Amino acid sequence: MPRPHADNRTATVFQEAARQAMERARRRTGALTDAVDDAELVRQHSALMSPLVWDLAHIASQEEIWLLRTVGRQEPLRPEIDDIYDAFRHARADRPQLPLLAPAEARVYARDVRNRVLDLMERVPSGEDPLTRDAFAFGMIAQHEQQHDETMLATHQLRTGAAVLEAPEPPRAFDVPSEEVVIPAGTFTMGTSAHPWALDNERPAHAVHVAAFALDTTPVTCGAFLAFVEDGGYNDPRLWTEEGWAHRVREEWTAPGFWVRDGRTWLRRRFGVLEPVPLGEPVVHVSWFEADAYARWAGRRLPTEAEWEKAARHDPATGLSRTYPWGEDEPTPEHANLGQRHLRPAAAGAYPAGASAHGVRQLLGDVWEWTSSDFTGYPGFAAWPYKEYSEVFFGRDYKVLRGGSFGTDAVACRGTFRNWDFPQRRQIFAGVRTARDAGPR
Length: 441
Known about the structure:
Layout: H1 10-34, H2 38-42, H3 52-71, H4 103-121, H5 136-158, E1 180-183, E2 186-190, E3 206-210, E4 213-216, H6 222-230, H7 242-251, E5 259-262, E6 265-270, E7 273-276, H8 288-297, H9 305-313, E8 368-375, E9 395-402, E10 419-421, E11 430-431, E12 435-437
Parallel strand pairs: 8-11
Antiparallel strand pairs: 1-4, 2-3, 4-12, 5-6, 6-7, 8-9, 9-10
Helix pairs in contact: 1-5, 3-4, 3-5
């Protein structure tokens, strides 16, 4: 994401960045939906997820509503489908019963909207409208599409049948100097008031004092989590919250999602491939309940959201907060496992170039990391451009995840980006990193 310029080229720079981000998102949307036939597109692979064809048309509907109608003030193309693709009107489990656009029709609609949007981008002024300043609305839509692309990738993980997605293997691990990093007590700047495409829940920047704590240098590995499984962690209610234990019993969890035991060996199913659980890779598909229980078993705890962000962004040499753990440079394949470049987390210890100023690795990409924090607004929060993006989810029902996964695109992944979900969810690409108190407050 480009930084603001001091001259009149700024608007053009941001528009070009938005165009590239939107085109990258659309290529990914096409790859995810073209990988299966029409029958698979309209099928609901899990009650937790929409049919893939719903996501495809919803992406286009939101693009039309926000860019063509709101920014471009154009007449609606398909007003009769607004209700069908309103995510707040219909639960995911109910969407297959709606009169959805057929795959071919959804593709035509998405293509028509995008062509009109590209034409609009050539004509819309940046001006003082906060929706168009720094191409915010276009960046917002690029982020929205990539978020649904990650959701569709999770749907691919839930579908049965042969593998249809391909990607190269991620890079190897590098040695880490220590298992944990101690972050000294002190105040840092959390959130942002400056990033041009930051969403409302990332704003505003504010000072937060964080007591000294220690954080795992890398995410918890499958091997470490397997020790918890083999030690009876799923059978010990003392390690679980009351709600978490009730959910574990009801769902009969005995291991992370998609793990199956084959004799004395643990296997996992990954995008249609059954393979041995990779012991050196970050564990994925664990709920907040499982992450919290694991941390208790390990004699540690989940980090707070503020602790996670300080470890990721604070530069002790300057006292400033970085956009990314490594600095201000845009993410590259050397920094982090992002954008569905690979179809799995990289081994723990990979990406030394992506380490934070404190030396913590793999804070962006690989797996979303659960924090102990409920999802709430920052001091001075203001819902914008619509309260349904963040505000309606505030409260104790949702836990915050940070850092992105291998399925998260760089446009929707930065040190301030916040994700949230129910604590029982584990179809998402979520893992765990633990913390502990470490001295003076």
